[in-house]
Amino acid sequence: MLAVVLGLISGLSWGVADFLGGIASRRAAVLTVVALSQTVGLTLALVALAVLRPAVPPASEIAFAASAGICGVIGLVAFYRAMSVGSISLIAPISALGALVPLSVDLIAGRTPGPLPLLGMLVALGGAALAGRAPGPASRRGVGLALVAALGFGAFFALLAEGAESSALWGLAAARGGSAPLAVLVAVLVAGGGLAAMSRRTLLLVVASGALDAAANLLFAAGSQRGLVSVVAVLGSLYPVVTVALAASLLHERLGRLQAVGAVVALVGVAMIAAG
Questions:
Q1: Cα distances (angstroms) measured from residue 241 to each of 14, 225, 228, 265, 268
Q2: Residue 25: is its pLDDT beyond 80?
């Protein structure tokens, strides 16, 4: 039960973080937003390590977690870029399909979640296809990037679960240790930094997004220690419910009827996977 709670709370935290990050990406360079948010997460993780001083895990786990961070930052760049050019209400549900990656890993390893999650896979895929292709007023720009984000997030889920077996906090720190330097390097080389051009309000959005994202990562890592990784991952992948709700209420985004149905069906599929 604790794994379920941690998964759901991580989804809530990711949902708010992604909404804030998506808004910031419309006001500043995407690479700069990602680099700063990852640096915030790394800083918080290092402070927590210095205070709590948990035992150092095996090097193999640190390597898995660092690899997770690299995959995660690739997914995050694609995700924020997709939200900066497209509709948040459409991009978020498609990116949630990353939950299918750890589910597939569990199936290959013989850890079968059950018939309901398997049916949920088909439902989620069908909903994403409908949301991405149906005509309507919402822009379908960024759908390809949303799929890249889904793969990045899915790999992140699977790898972080391996990297956080001994310590969720070390898993977070190693993941950010892999993602933050890479994000900063790319931002400097491609975007030239960009912090000077960022307004104070946008900076606050990015810092809040980075802190919430780090918290969600930690909650997911802790949940994966206590339950089936695929289940915790899909519960965390319910974040689009929060992101879409915030986009609808604060940005007044509207989807076409079929697009809205597709987005809902995709989320229903994710919920079916979690319920199994």
A1: 10, 25, 22, 12, 10
A2: yes
